[in-house]
Each structure stands twice: as structure tokens, then as C-alpha cells.
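User: Structure with adenosine-5'-triphosphate, C-alpha cells only please.
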Amino acid sequence: MSRPDGGPGERLGIFGGTFDPPHVGHLVTAVNVRHELALDRVLLVVNDQPWQKLGTRDISPAEDRHAMVAAAVGSVEGLEASRVEIERGGMSYTADTLATLLAEDPGRELYVILGSDAAAGLPSWERADEVRSLATIVVVERPGARGAEPPAGWSWQRVEVPRLEVSSTELRARVADGRPLDYLLTPDVIATIEARGLYGARVGS
Ligand code: ATP
Ligand code: MG
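Assistant:
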């Protein structure tokens, strides 16, 4: 795609998630996909209501998760916390997010970044055909799920990133147990968790 003025369109990565909390696995992924694909920016798009997780556990308020993502990306070049799904509200469907981002700038090229654990499930996404036609899928390798691929008919590519065996689920348990978070979460994310008392955090623990 190109801009109406003939210049190249912005290459924009979309890395969606619950980010409850955002951890080094997310950040290493975003930074390395941006580098490998020469993306201008990667948006960490905070789900408002993650339809795949509703009913499975308590999910922290979207504003708390957004505050953690903003803290996580800090001033890292090319990474941004996005409020687009929070502002829309309701179920967070990638098809809607892509439409919003293209309405802002039709010349953009969109890259939807996924862990390989999520790749095989793409056809079950809301209006999957719209996602397929509006974006290229970027599958990053994730521990424990190597090899999962989008089905035939999708435009996609694989990017290898350093594999960090960490998940938000494990980190929530660590906070609740008072185990160390250092080097798994950025210092500013740890401070945000403590300041907001998330996951049963005790200040100074
Ligand atoms: P939870 O344990 O609550 O499911 P999570 O750590 O999987 O959390 P999500 O917010 O569900 O984090 O993930 C957002 C995106 O990040 C998904 O595409 C997921 O595949 C990817 N992802 C999660 N953990 C990692 C990791 N360690 N390395 C690379 N990608 C990851
Ligand atoms: Mg997950």
C-alpha cells in the first residue's frame, strides 16, 4: 500500500493482549518484531474485554492494565500503549481495531502480531475474513507451542524472537505469593502494581 501522495505508508504493528500484567516476553517480542520487519511503530493494544478469557478468571480493570503497559513501554523507541480498544469499549475484536486504525490513516500497512499459541485459532476470531484481508499476520515463536501456523489462505510470516518462558498467569501468582518479580517485569511495572495494589500486592514485599 502507499499513500495518496505516493510516499510509503506507515508500517504499523498491532500486538494485542490482556497484558495482565505486561512482562518481558511481551516487550522482547514487540521490540524484535519491530526490528525484524522494519515497522515504524508497534502498538501494544490493551483489550477492553478479552472475549477469549471472559469467565475464565478475574481480569484487572482495563485502566490498570493500560497503566501497566504505558509504564512498560516507557520511552522505548517505537513502542506505544494503545487505548483504541478501551475507548471503543465492549468486546475487543481485532477486526474493529484494524478498521479504526485504517480509518485514521488508510495508507498504513497493518501487521497483527501473535504468539504461535494463538495462530491456529485465527479462523474462530470475530469476522476473521476482515482480519485476513486487512492485515498480515506475524507469528512469533512461543515456548510450548512451536509450529502452530495460520490456516491456508492467510497472509502471514514467522519471526523468531528470543524465547522467554514467562506468562502473565505465572506473574500474577508470583505477586500474590510475594516471590521476586525483578527482571521479569520492568521496574516501572512493578511500581505500578504496588501503587495500585494489583494481584494482592503488598508494598515493600
Ligand atoms: P495469560 O497468562 O494471562 O494468558 P500471557 O502471558 O499469555 O497472559 P497475553 O496478554 O494473554 O499474555 O498475551 C498477549 C500476546 O502476547 C499473545 O499474542 C501471546 O501469544 C503473546 N505472549 C504471551 N506471552 C509471551 C511470551 N512469553 N513470549 C512471546 N509472546 C508472548
Ligand atoms: Mg495468554
